[in-house]
Amino acid sequence: MVTRMTQLKVAFAQIDCLVGDIPGNVDKVIEAAETAKTKYNADLVIFPELTLTGYPPEDLLLRASLQVRVEKALERILYTVKDIALVIGFPWREQGKLFNCAAFIDGGEIKAKYRKKCLPNYQVFDEKRYFEPGSDTVVLPWRGFNLGVSICEDVWEEEPIAATAAAGADFIVNINASPYDIAKLQQRRTLVQSRAVTNSVPILYVNMIGGQDELIFDGGSFAVNRHGRVCFSAPQFEEGIFLLELNDVIHGEGQETAEPAPTMAVEASIYKALVTGVRDYVNKNRFKSVVIGLSGGIDSAVTLAVAVDAIGADRVRAVMMPFRYTSQMSLEDAEAEAKALGVQYEVVPIEPIYDQFMGALNPLFAGLDRDTTEENIQARIRGVILMGISNKTGALVLTTGNKSEMAVGYATLYGDMAGGYDVLKDVFKTMVFRLAWYRNTLSPVIPERVITRPPSAELAPDQKDEDSLPPYEILDEILSLYVEHDVSADGIVAKGFDKETVYRVVRLVDINEYKRRQAPIGARITMRGFGRDRRYPITSGWKLGE
């Protein structure tokens, strides 16, 4: 290993890219490179995977003009950034094949291109749809060291890092677009630490940040030395340039050479992820504001708090739409939440509208008993009101359904499911309670009785969620096993759950796939979210059991 007296500085660029906006992403690259050099005197700045297109670009990768746009982007970077080295990701087509590439750029020249070897094709990833795998290992001399390059999934497999270390790399740069989930940060660190120790090579791991439709990228970039010690870590959910003293990582003898960013509590981490998702979905899609149906219940309360923290109270509107079953407590609590958060608040009673609906429908319902139809009409009236406000003002409707409800279909299609983005779509009800308590530690905005009283949709007299569903503590455990871990109904029963309850819950999950296909997207925060992650057929003859 080469010893070097001059301390080299590496800047980790956690930047929030907009998918498809190649010129705008280049602007961010140039600005970050200039900041890294002029403010921090960095020698190298490393950017995330597919920085130029954003991640995941999906079928934009099939556009005929993609290569031309990427070439223009690289030309601009080469012309503009000459006094600092870069590692940056982008798609690249050659000989009729498309590769997920990283380039090492120095002095206004591309010194090497690396083509990603391992293409993930599981969970939310489908890179084999677009890319061909690379085969070459890239290690090149830079400032007295041998620098190796790899991309994201390459560190999850053994061969790429082993080959790069064997080729003489003194350190390896691994660029990533690794989506957030609750356990992902520790998984990344543990995996990279293992690769570093096994191959006796330091690894610099840079990750993207920001929200892209369902996916949230949390940053949390870090570096480990050859002993597997985390020598540096950047914060999660914070865009910026973060500096690393490279020599300390390469020559460190097992000690921590910098104070790592503190690990966030799970509730804080999830809350930040939800805020990131709302902020970027609203802003990147250029919505002026958002509107929320505020019920006085815990789901809408947490949704309102997330929205305000994401885009500011001046861009958030809350509407309470009471009916004869709405309690006085709900009216009081909804108003208290709106005042505490400082949002625009209105009350629009729906009973006169409901009476008009029923007047028109009663002849068609003659001889039929009252059932959930009448409840659903209430929810659909509320959906119409919110969508009317959305159409008229340009506000995005944020829906409030949680993962427990979405799983078992405890939501009304074209009613409370009507909207553009579901903040809690991947958050189980038990976690919603925890998030409410957490948010109140920042400032008291959710009345305590909203958190402690039994949940109710208030669509019928004295209605409680547990009249129709198992207690959420039990329901969420069953759902986690079935939805996130693919444990069969009988497998769940074998873990000690009541068979009748399990079969009922599993059946509800299966038969409500059609609803979820028509539901708004929402931030993915678990290892298996509904949407692009968990894909089951609507029409299916699969029988419950094993």
UniProtKB/TrEMBL annotation:
Keywords: ATP-binding, Ligase, NAD, Nucleotide-binding. It comes from the Bacteria. L-glutamine binds at residues 122, 178, 184. It catalyses: deamido-NAD(+) + L-glutamine + ATP + H2O = L-glutamate + AMP + diphosphate + NAD(+) + H(+). The keyword Nucleotide-binding applies. Pfam families: CN_hydrolase, NAD_synthase. Residues 8-248 form the CN hydrolase domain. ATP binds at residues 293-300, 400. Deamido-NAD(+) binds at residues 376, 405, 515. CDD domains: GAT_Gln-NAD-synth (cd07570), NAD_synthase (cd00553). GO terms for molecular function: ATP binding; glutaminase activity; NAD+ synthase (glutamine-hydrolyzing) activity; NAD+ synthase activity. GO terms for cellular component: cytoplasm. Pathway: Cofactor biosynthesis; NAD(+) biosynthesis; NAD(+) from deamido-NAD(+) (L-Gln route): step 1/1. Its EC number is 6.3.5.1. The keyword ATP-binding applies. The active site is at residues 49, 116, 152. One of its GO terms (biological process) is NAD+ biosynthetic process. Belongs to the NAD synthetase family. In the C-terminal section; belongs to the NAD synthetase family. HAMAP family: NadE_glutamine_dep. NCBIfam families: nadE, PRK13981.1. Catalyzes the ATP-dependent amidation of deamido-NAD to form NAD. Uses L-glutamine as a nitrogen source. This is Glutamine-dependent NAD(+) synthetase.
